[in-house]
Amino acid sequence: MLSYTLKRLALAIPTLLILIIVSFVLMHAAPGGPFTSERELPPEVLANLNAKYGLDQPLWRQIATYVWGILTEFDFGPSFVYKDRTVNEIIAQGFPVTLTYGAISFVVAVLVGVTLGTVAAIRQNTILDYFAVGVSIGAQVLPNFVMAPILVLVFTLWLGWLPGGGWQGGQWEYIVLPVVALSTSFMASIARITRSSMLETLNLNHVRTARAKGLPERRVILRHALKPAMLPVISYLGPAFVAMITGSVVVDVYFSTGGIGKAFVDSALNRDYAVMMGVTILMGALTILFNLVVDILYGWIDPKIRY
Amino acid sequence: MVANQHKMEALADRLSEEDPVAGRSLWADARRRFFANRAAVAGLGILLVVALFAAFGGLIAQWSNEELDYAVMGAIATEGAPSLSNGHYFGTDDLGRDLFARTVQGTQVSLMVGLVGALVAVVVGTIYGATAGYVGGRVDSVMMRAVDILMAIPYMFVLILILVMYGRSMTALFVGLGLISWLEMSRIVRGQTLSLKNREFIEAARATGVPAVTIIRRHVVPNLLGVIAVYATLLVPLMILTESFISFLGLGVQEPLTSLGALISEGAGTIAYGTIWQLGFPLLFFCLTLFGFFFVGDGLRDALDPKDR
């Protein structure tokens, strides 16, 4: 187990380095610099700017400085557009918001998805089952950027129950719509995966044994069937996490929650490369970390897997 | 004995006269299974309608996608609603442009993005995966490790990075989508190649001295076509989703070009003014396209990959 964890870590670190270097080189090779604008800057000013941001150094040295800054001080450097703000400040402002509703969405998607899938499997071919299957097929074509406007249309404009945007320090009525918009399609996928793997598990020998020795059905499912049935769900969590991080950008933009996604889109529109790279690398690091956790969890749940 | 011989001859005549039973090839078998699947046929029908709409919708549009209708401008919520009399079948957008023509254009762009993305995935993914799987050994593990690393990167952010840095053109979009789309495909192709590679006919080819490139081209790839077709069909909606996602954020194709995602974004931004058709029609075609591809893809998988059922 330990050696496996170390092996995964050994793969995670070069992945992160490659991500940093690739985005840095992409940024460097792009036509036009960060200070290109309609108004031509005098060459002396441009030279000074380049010197201030270290852009006059050779490429390898720039990369080395950048990586070193991130590794030692967690410093992503200054923003290219907002002269008085660093990337760290911009990220620190939006990240707690994204983390709050992102974590809630993730928990909701997993809990509701697993419950729905399990119930559908136990009550196979009943109304409940058809409902669960129908929802999961429908949600395939209802990604977050389709859910968000529909939710606002129904719950804000027609029913007037919930505010259609804003954050207000995270009061619950401002969290509901973002969470629903973000979690629905994942909830549906998790429900579908849980249902099919639960159906398979319920036919296994050890479940039959548990039933034969007279355990109550609730205990059979919670104690004996749920754990092995969770394996495909857990391997889906990695991709789901990536997709959720991506989806949070839509939520931030559409619901004006003020999260990190908004900062990313703004920086993309302003060509603020430093912020874009900072967010990309942070999200990449989170993704890699989460995949590591999932892999370890997988090995812990299924001791048959030996590395 | 003689009578028997007559009988035998009669029987032989009858056998030789009767049409030989036509053998069913893998593809004929798959076609039969596909058309027996009601959801898949419905999906195919939906796709046909969407394709016809994208191809010939422009002919029945009364307005071009760039014209502004000054008669409805300023009163879109009341005058710009869908109507047959002024020729705006789907209504107009908030600038007074005909939404029918815009939806036709958006559907064209979205379909094209999806198909090109899937095509890149098929070509690059097949070559990469088949090579890695066939060569095997250290080459294989290096090539697949590279894919692992690329898959761990949050590609949407990198894609947006590429789009912003190299101008938000269609070319940049295709390159960016192409860069990410082949990863999953190469994994699938590699897995299939690994299981094919030790089969007798490949061994026979190798024993007779056929070069590796020819074996991949003539013997491996044709046997992968079924799997490739299935995943290519399922990739198209994913590419459309990705492009729509980026366009929804306003980072995708630029005006006057539009895509279904960009139209949904515009519609989503204006629902507060009561112009719900701006969201409704693009959304309808978006969902129809995705449903069509998902159903056809699932049907193809069931038809071509019988062991998966």
TrEMBL record, chain A:
Similarity annotation: Belongs to the binding-protein-dependent transport system permease family.
Name of the protein described by the UniProt record: Peptide ABC transporter permease
Residues in ABC transmembrane type-1 domain copies: 95-298
Subcellular locations according to the entry: Cell membrane
Cited PROSITE patterns: ABC_TM1
A GO CC annotation given for this chain: plasma membrane
Transmembrane segment boundaries: 9-30, 101-122, 142-162, 174-193, 233-255, 275-301
Alphabetized SUPFAM superfamilies for the sequence: MetI-like
Biological process annotations from GO: transmembrane transport
Sorted UniProt keywords: Cell membrane, Membrane, Transmembrane, Transmembrane helix, Transport
CDD domains: TM_PBP2
Membrane-topology annotation of the record: Multi-pass membrane protein
